[in-house]
Amino acid sequence: MAGFFSSWFSWLTSLLFSKTAEIAIVGLQASGKTSFVNVIGSGQWSEDVVPTVGYIFKTVRKGNVNLKIWDVAGQPKFRTMWERYCHGADAIVFVLDSADPEKFNTARFELHQLLSQSALSGVPLLVLGNKNDLEGHVPVKDLIRDLQLDKIADRPVSCYSCSMKSQHNLDIVLQWLAGRSH
Amino acid sequence: MSFAMAFSKKEDESGLSSYYNNKTTIIQEARVFNESPISPRKCRQLLTRIVYLLYVGETFSTQESTTLFFGTTKLFQHKDSALRQAVYLAIKELATTAEDVIMVTSSIMKDMQPNSEVIYRPNAIRALCRIIDPSMAQGVERFFKAAIVDKNPSISSAALVSSYHLFPHAKDVVKRWVNEAQEAVNAKSQGYFGSVSSGSSSFFGGGSSQNATQTIPSSSNITQYHALGLLYLMRQQDRMAITKMIQQLGGGKSGAGTTLKNAMALCMLIRYAAKVIEEDPNVQRQMVELLEGWLRHKSDMVNFEAARVICEMKNVTAAQLTKSIAVLQLFLSSPKPVLKFAATRTLAALALSHPASVAACNVDLENLITDTNRSVATYAITTLLKTGNEASVDRLIKQITGFMSEISDEFKVIIVDAIRSLCLKFPAKHAAMLTFLSGVLRDEGGYDFKRAVVEAIFDMIKFIGECKEQALSHLCEFIEDCEFTKLSVRILHLLGIEGPKSSQPAKYIRFIYNRVVLENAPVRAAAVASMAKFGVSSSDPKLNHSIGVLLNRCLDDVDDEVRDRATMYLKVFKAQNLVEPYVKEDSVLSLTALEAKLVSYVKDGSASAQPFDVSSIPKISRAQAAAESARPSTLDTIGVPAPKKTSAAPPPPTAAETQSAYADQLAAVPAFANYGPILNSSARPLPLTESETEYQVTCVKHIFKEHIVFQFNVSNTLPDTVLEQVTMAMQTEDEGLSQEFVLPINSLSAASSPGVAYVSFVRDEPEDYATATFQCTLQFVSKELDPSTGEPEAEGYEDEYQIEEVELSAGGDYIIPSYAAFGAEWDRMKAGPSVTETFGLGASVESLKAACDSIIEVLNMEPLGGTEIPTSSSVHTLQLSGLVTGGGGKVLARCRMTFSQGVGVTLELGVRAEKQDVCQLVVNAVGG
């Protein structure tokens, strides 16, 4: 009986005091979007992640914050669909492979293409320079320059360098995400 | 459910359903999909409206349905199971029009996982097969295999049905699931509560009360039905495998050992068995044993299906029928209308071919005549009409007349058809039946019904002489008030043919001329033609005069066609020599041949320099033309719910169709481009090998003005060899033809068979009809295929293959059958070239019939006036007519034959043609 009440109580408190945030995660293919969701969801990092088809929806609970995550596929044929899932999100997370500077141009194009949609104006943006455990990754400063993040004026923009594998900087990322909840 | 009620209530109260269920409104309201948090109730309501709109035929543009589709995909974040089911429904409906539906794959796959809630999984599986494209089938293979053998029947059924739909797109992948399907078909019956999922513990924990919804597995074993369907689809091409499957699942002679518990599955199995029997008569005996076992099954459905299949079998014997008729007889006295209907319908069909066997049920059928269900009564009566004796006809007809007004047109047609066959069976009863038919002709009814009645009367006129005049007067009365132009025209045509032969032709004229006054243009034109036929057929000058007057009045008609016909017939009246070719002409051009020739004439640009030559078209008699046209023969199709089995296979191409197909094929070969039009091609490919051999060859001969082309269709049936440089070596000792070139087949494998090789000859004297016999040898380089790579080996060996001889002869190559009025033509050509010669056909020809058959075959000419069947056993004259290809004109042959025991048949062959060498050709063909 006691167990029943305690579970009922925790359910009630969660109902009363929890906050939610809807997050859309986009980025080029193989940048680590699904890994990011896996790591913040279950703490598991795995070498082989199957390329996402379409999107994956996941809810992750951190403290009293409920994160609803739309992890959208990054292959070219899915990029036109990003906008649909960023629509109505509380934050857009753009994941980037910071160890692969050759793709920065494409990434910049796709990112600015997405942000130019009028329906998405004002939605906070978080750019993650992933894979900073690898040799030769590009530091945050250069990322901001290469992606022309300084030119985005209509929304709050943050850019962190992090690694899913080593879980470096993950805490501040989560903090940032929790800050978007309401 | 609560929603559905609320919805209908709202609709009733507001009366705004047109606004409420309006496409634009719905697309606007689709915003609720993006709301956060999601309101399951609102969303479900909207999804229902979308699905409703689609079901009532509204269409969404690609853009609209894509927007809606992506809206619905957002709803996957909510766990409400009722909402999720509505989402799946909407996805399935939108998937056909929306773009990028593949986006939702991973959400659906998540719901398919074994750890997902049971209620989602069948829905997810069914939606998935609408979403994925064939290339992804491989990726879901694992899920499907597991789902097919899932313990829960709804999941298993969903997976089986989805595989069934996937099969046409991803054959190879789905075929690998055969073991799973087999397992599903054999699955033991599920207990009622065996696999209720455990999910009730999360009643409060998940914050949602929807989890309480449980799926209770059905006990119907419907999974077996689905699995059987899939298995059949996979094995369809392999008759042996199907036979084996039927035997395995059939459960032995008594049918008791079967694992199939679902009645529908068994019915399906019975239908497969019927198909196997139809395709392979060798298995008929063992299949019938199985079917007889099923006659004793505990389900009515299975009993009926087995009985029906036995009744519909080709060449079924009376002994085989007894058991199934006993079953159907039992159904006749069943209280269930469905059973009664099914049984009477089957018996009605069977009564056509086996009236004696069905007669056993007559007593029970009598009781059904007054059945309140008119459909049952109709079938009972039509069956009785076919099985009954002459004495009962009057009573039955009276009975039918009683409720004719209560049944639908469709059943009226069935009854009329039954009457039609009946009057041919009992001509003595024609008076009663004609009264009945003329009675129903006056009733209300649609075109199909009226046509059936008119055709029945037509048949009576044709086959029963005594009733002709009375029937004609009924028809005259009918056209006085007939709303169907087509029927009026047909009746007027018939009046024109039959009327003049009657004792008082004049009495029909009034009816016909009334039509000229009162009807629309097509009927007026038909009436004019009909009247004119009276005029030319009658020798009564008074009648002729009045018809002339009437036709003169028609010259003022407003319609061109009517005026033209009247003018033409008036002209014909004045010049009696025009009567024969224009009014009484008994032959018509063969329409198929005419079409083929015209098509090639139009296609060939250079041909238009000369006018189209109608005389090269073979003619056929009116009787043949009638037989060729589509009207089903009177006796075959009576009163049966016609099983449309034949229509599944396309009809075999007519000679004319194959001709034009050849023309297309040849036109594609540049070497034949300057040969000009084809004068004639063989009517059908001539096989030069046995049908079982490893290489199969058929030959088609094409006659051109100056060339002759032999087309060899070569098939290589060996799957592991490829033939290269396939040529045909043709040698002849006859003169008149010299070989020009050979077109080989470069490479011929089993997959690319049949290939076509050509051999072309030049006609040394294009005017001559060169005949020859060719020895043919197939020459090729044979290479074996490497089984691992499928590539042919580098070095092959040369090989030869002897095939049968090819003959170039008069009949079939130079002469084609054509209809003519023999007597008149024979006299007309008296002045032309002719040859008469006498042959002894030798003792090997045993009768005049055999002589006729072989002469017709050798000459390939049209026998005229039924002379192909000798009436006397000692003396006979066979009349033949044909056309010679390439402008050779008509050729007629008169074969006077005598037969005496010991000597055999002596033949005096007289040939008249437009050219001397044609006569010689014919005589040589018989003599040689």
From TrEMBL, chain A:
GTP binds at G27, L28, Q29, A30, S31, G32, K33, T34, G74, N130, K131, N132, D133. It comes from the Eukaryota. The keyword Nucleotide-binding applies. GO terms for biological process: protein transport. One of its GO terms (cellular component) is lytic vacuole membrane. One of its GO terms (molecular function) is GTPase activity. InterPro entries: Arl8a/8b (IPR044154), P-loop_NTPase (IPR027417), Small_GTP-bd (IPR005225), Small_GTPase_ARF/SAR (IPR006689). Residues 1-23 form the signal peptide. Mg(2+) binds at T34, T52. It holds the Pfam family Arf. Keywords: GTP-binding, Magnesium, Metal-binding, Nucleotide-binding, Signal. CDD domains: Arl10_like (cd04159). Belongs to the small GTPase superfamily. Arf family. This is Adp-ribosylation factor-like 8b. It comes from Favolaschia claudopus.
UniProtKB/TrEMBL annotation, chain B:
GO terms for molecular function: structural molecule activity. It comes from the Eukaryota. InterPro entries: ARM-like, ARM-type_fold, Clathrin/coatomer_adapt-like_N, Clathrin_app_Ig-like_sf, Coatomer/calthrin_app_sub_C, Coatomer_g_Cpla, Coatomer_gsu, Coatomer_gsu_app_Ig-like_dom. Residues 628-659 are annotated as: Disordered. Pfam families: Adaptin_N (PF01602), Coatomer_g_Cpla (PF16381), COP-gamma_platf (PF08752). GO terms for biological process: endoplasmic reticulum to Golgi vesicle-mediated transport; intra-Golgi vesicle-mediated transport; intracellular protein transport; protein secretion. Transmembrane segments: none annotated. Residues 661-809 form the Coatomer gamma subunit appendage Ig-like subdomain domain. Gene3D superfamilies: Coatomer, gamma subunit, appendage domain, Leucine-rich Repeat Variant, TATA-Binding Protein. It is a peripheral membrane protein. SUPFAM superfamilies: ARM repeat, Clathrin adaptor appendage domain, Subdomain of clathrin and coatomer appendage domain. The keyword Repeat applies. It is found in: Cytoplasm; Golgi apparatus membrane; Cytoplasmic vesicle, COPI-coated vesicle membrane. Residues 23-575 form the Clathrin/coatomer adaptor adaptin-like N-terminal domain. Residues 812-926 form the Coatomer subunit gamma C-terminal domain. Keywords: Cytoplasm, Cytoplasmic vesicle, ER-Golgi transport, Golgi apparatus, Membrane, Phosphoprotein, Protein transport, Repeat, Transport. One of its GO terms (cellular component) is COPI vesicle coat. PANTHER family: COATOMER SUBUNIT GAMMA, COATOMER SUBUNIT GAMMA-2. Belongs to the COPG family. Oligomeric complex. The coatomer is a cytosolic protein complex that binds to dilysine motifs and reversibly associates with Golgi non-clathrin-coated vesicles, which further mediate biosynthetic protein transport from the ER, via the Golgi up to the trans Golgi network. Coatomer complex is required for budding from Golgi membranes, and is essential for the retrograde Golgi-to-ER transport of dilysine-tagged proteins. This is Coatomer subunit gamma. It comes from Favolaschia claudopus. The lineage of its organism: Eukaryota, Fungi, Dikarya, Basidiomycota, Agaricomycotina.
